[in-house]
TrEMBL record:
InterPro entries: CRF-bd, CRF-BP_C, CRF-BP_N, Sperma_CUB_dom_sf. One of its GO terms (cellular component) is extracellular space. Belongs to the CRF-binding protein family. Residues 102-179 form the Corticotropin-releasing factor binding protein C-terminal domain. One of its GO terms (molecular function) is corticotropin-releasing hormone binding. Keywords: Disulfide bond, Glycoprotein, Secreted, Signal. Residues 1-94 form the Corticotropin-releasing factor binding protein N-terminal domain. One of its GO terms (biological process) is negative regulation of corticotropin secretion. It comes from Argyrosomus regius. This is Corticotropin-releasing factor-binding protein. Binds CRF and inactivates it. May prevent inappropriate pituitary-adrenal stimulation in pregnancy. It is found in: Secreted. The keyword Signal applies. The keyword Disulfide bond applies.
Length: 179
């Protein structure tokens, strides 16, 4: 599991790879995290289809020596059968000026998410038990939007939804309130 700051993305480079793909060895980078069968970001929050989020060394070989995540988390799956086989990966962090789909590294702090002119679902996930206080809120064309729940505002276009649960897949979490 790799994690960067909320305003960064991750690149993983295949360096010295000495594995036997024909014997079933593999190295695969996943654009996001997979935990207990759940994926972050969920398929509805990620721009790429699920099959494009898995990039295997044995499938791409020397054609694709580097994989860049779409958010601040990525992970590597690998299996090596023979003693003496090995690989080296280089992990780098790059600034992402408009982060979308973030897992927080800390159970406290403040964070601003700006997603200009993008028509997509984004999420900011906190994987610790927390109390949330929204101190400032601007969405779409509305400034100083009142902090209160409005019935069916999720159907009005842009909205922020607070979800809760015990997983990382936002599509499986329960709505707490809409703003």
């Amino acid at each position: 599991f790799f994690m960067a700051e909320p305003n960064e993305v991750i690149s993983v480079e295949y360096d010295n790879v000495d594995i036997d793909c024909k014997a079933g060895d593999f190295i695969t980078v996943f654009d996001g995290w997979v935990m207990k069968g759940e994926k972050f970001p969920s398929s509805q929050d990620h721009l790429l289809p699920l099959y494009e989020r898995y990039v295997g060394y044995c499938d791409s070989g020397s054609v694709r020596r580097s994989v860049r995540s779409s958010q601040n988390v990525a992970m590597v799956f690998f299996r090596i059968h023979n003693a003496g086989s090995s690989f080296t990966l280089t992990f780098r962090k790059h600034i992402n000026p408009f982060p979308c789909n973030v897992i927080s590294q800390s159970p406290e702090g403040s964070y601003t998410m700006v997603i200009p002119q993008q028509h997509r679902n984004c999420s900011f996930s906190i994987i610790y038990p927390v109390e949330i206080d929204i101190s400032e809120f601007t969405l779409g064309h509305f400034n100083n939007f009142p902090k209160r729940s409005m019935p069916a505002c999720a159907e009005s276009g842009d909205f922020v939804q607070l979800l809760g649960g015990n997983g990382i897949d936002t599509s499986k979490l329960l709505p707490i309130t809409d703003l």
